[in-house]
Amino acid sequence: MILICSFLLIALMGMSAWGCTDIIVGKDASTDGSVITSHTADGAFYDARVRTIPGQTFPAGSKADVFWNIVMEEDFEPVKIGEIPQVEKTYTYFHVGYPFMNEHGVAIGETTIGQKEELKTFRPDARAIMTIEQLEVFGLQRAKTAREAVAVIGELAEKYGFLPSCGSEGECITITDGEEAWIFEVRSTGFMWTPESGKPGAVWVAQRVPDDGVVVVPNMSRIREIDVTDTKNFMASKDYMQPAIDNGWYDPSSGKPFIWQEAYSPLTGNDDWSLSSMWIRNRLYTLYSMLDPSREWDPYAETMSYPFAVKPQKKISVQDVMNMLRGHMEGTPFDMAAADAWYVRDGDKMVKSPLATPFVTKDVRNLLSVPYSRPIAKWDCAYSFVSQARSGYPAAVKTVLWFGYDNPHTTCYVPVYSGILQTKESWRTFDRKAFSLGSAQWAFILADDLVNHRYQDAIKDLKAVRDPLELDFAKQVAEVDKKALELAKEDPAKAQEYITKFTNDCMEKAEKAWWQLNWDLISKYNNNQKK
User: Fold this and answer.
1) Against a cut of 0.70, is the pTM above it?
2) Closest by alpha carbon to 161, among 199, 217, 133?
3) How many angstroms separate the CA atoms of 406 and 101, rounded?
């Protein structure tokens, strides 16, 4: 066990964060009328401890601290870099690397997007102080609806300056409640910005997702034309076109429309964050092909050719989104598990090796000459979720967020209600440098690694445990909803206690199942077995 854990930690230390994927579903495009967003936190070191931060009431004149490294991508605790006036009352929210939900059922996904060099801003020289994760904290603490969250986050970014925390790139967050879904994109304004300049410290725009549409955001700007007069569907910062005009990226006298996506994104070249990047194209192609297989999608088409939203051929369930996040581009030219190098001779025929995996490490790719293609699910994902916000429900049960540790492909999604009081201790306990049986996150990290050593066989063992467990969770949620609604009418506090116990029970079941899965995989596939 010690050798296995040492190997695992060394492997994790060599991995880097590389983008995230969000899928957002409007209420008329979902099977149950819920508004869905999702997020894969694709970076092994992002903080994945799930904690509730209680809301508070503050005296007049109080200050709210502003932090760097909330995501914990750097190996030190968050550092205070500023403060802003505190509001009178904050709402309870869920804290992970990218905070994702509050007590009113507002949920937020995140995905980094590229921005041009002239906009980039770095610590410690920059005067801007608002990272996207800090903006998410304030949005969740201060907003009851998605639209309110857009306004809060946008205003704070303009006033205090947007400070990128991921390679100095731009950011997109996907904000939902039971009625609406919004795509919010923000860019910094360069080193020269100061609060005293009187200019906005960020440029941002937000577009409402059509109720009957689905939007995919795979690390690229998706918003194109803006109509600020259409306040139902668009919101934007003051002078959102001005940096593009000042830098010569847009000429208002040209008569051409202003295209946000093209004005502020790197378009081509060696920049992996450019709109032409293949690691963005392959996810767009795969996911849009799944959403509307009746259309002819070109896997090598320019990303700008994809519509902002697509009406899916069939309505999308929470489980459908989970399956999309779990994908490794099966049936496309980008599936690394289908590489020719995996086929070996068995008598007079060629068969796929049981070692064939869609999650090929760099060393194995070099050994076998397997071309790299970034899958949707990542082996170095810290956590992922699919949130389900329902209209007409009281706040405590309005949103169910299905949370999973590590690789989405091998995780088990566990229901977390928006009104719970606290999570299970082992789900808020993790030390990246020390393997522990007392940390649920380590159970999922280990299982993903063990499955990948003999993927073709071991993934079947994992699915045999996971699939019935997730199905049972889904059935229980329907029953828990009814009971919680009854309790909420009688006493909201009783409803909160009830859903807190249910969420923690589900966490315990998943954690216990995954530890047993680990011991079974070690017993079944160690190298002392007869072959």
Assistant:
1) yes
2) 199
3) 19
